[in-house]
């Protein structure tokens, strides 16, 4: 919710998903949504960030280039292996707004929707 408020204050349109299944529905090509940036927790109920990444690779490869992971679990071997394979930026939890801003600019450039 804090990230949503941060982006809204920046003038971005924000859509939030409560879990991985809801994120998958938002990102489904049939839903017709376009996102300039997708920030995804590595650990989500029902459909993890890893699951979402692999699903996007097949169904929305365009969105993979705009995907950023956020996690407080960077030390586990499974997480480290996945993140190494995925090669996507990571916001380690907890993070500050400066780090969030840096990664957003790196991924999205001058855009106005999330």
How many distinct helices?
6
Domain count: 1
Helical fraction equals 40-55%
**CATH class (first level) name:** Alpha Beta
What general form does the structure show?
A: globular
How much is the radius of gyration in Å?
13 Å
Find the structural class using helix and strand composition. mainly alpha
Q: Terminal Cα separation, in Å?
A: 14 Å
**How many strands, what sense, and barrel or not for the largest sheet?**
3 strands, parallel
Overall mean pLDDT: 86
Q: Which spans have pLDDT < 50 for at least 5 consecutive residues?
A: 110-114
Strand arrangement, largest sheet? 1-2-3
Query: What is the CATH superfamily classification?
Result: Response regulator
Strand content: 5-15%
In the CATH hierarchy, the architecture is: 3-Layer(aba) Sandwich
Fold-level CATH name: Rossmann fold
Number of strands: 3
Quaternary state of the chains:
single chain
